[in-house]
Protein: Glutathione S-transferase
Organism: Candidatus Hydrogenosomobacter endosymbioticus
Amino acid sequence: MCVLMRVLYSASFCPLSRKLAFGLREKKIEFSEKQEVLSAPSRELLSANPGGDIPSFVDHSVVCGSDYVACEYIDEAYPSPVLMGESPKNRAEVRRILHTFDSGFYQDVYLTLFYEKALKRMFEKNCPDTKVIKEAKSSLNRYMDFLNQLADARKFLAGSFFSWADISAASQVSCIDYIGDIQWNIHPHAKIWYMKIKSRPSFRQFLSQSFAGVPAVSWYRELDF
């Protein structure tokens, strides 16, 4: 009997972890998910990836020690459906949007806004810094304007095809939507796009998740909001 050795080491409400889980489910790849504590990676994770990076993806003897490496590997090793794009032009656009959300949004919005409103309670037990929150919300609106423009011009973010660009953006946005800081009324095209994403079976599992001590906004779990 073959033992499944395809493991995603992830953390709750980590958008990069969500991205890989979302992509794996889109490709209908069987895997087990092991929740890690960010400040104390398990021995099992450290054995596979000494850096203890979260997320990490292990596919038998292949270790993907970063989320971006995992995206590229998953799309090459399991080519159907293609999520990185069929042509060089398509792939360049997918990677451009991936970088915008995995790097820019993650640094400018998630690591400040979600940290101040949720993670800070867990790690520091301190009150949120209102100045930091104000700056993060300004950055959030800038990225949401970008997302709204893409959603207005295209069926999906990188073009006519569903891709890692949609997966990445939705994974980041969903964490921030949980705490209720997205002004969907001024980003209507992004809202329509996000409702389509929320309706995908591979995404719905995230809508049932909760962050300890921080309740979700009323519309977080609604497909039509």
About this structure: Residues 94 and 165 are 5 Å apart (CA to CA). The radius of gyration is 17 Å. The helical segments are 15-26, 43-48, 67-77, 88-123, 130-153, 164-178, 188-198, 204-207.
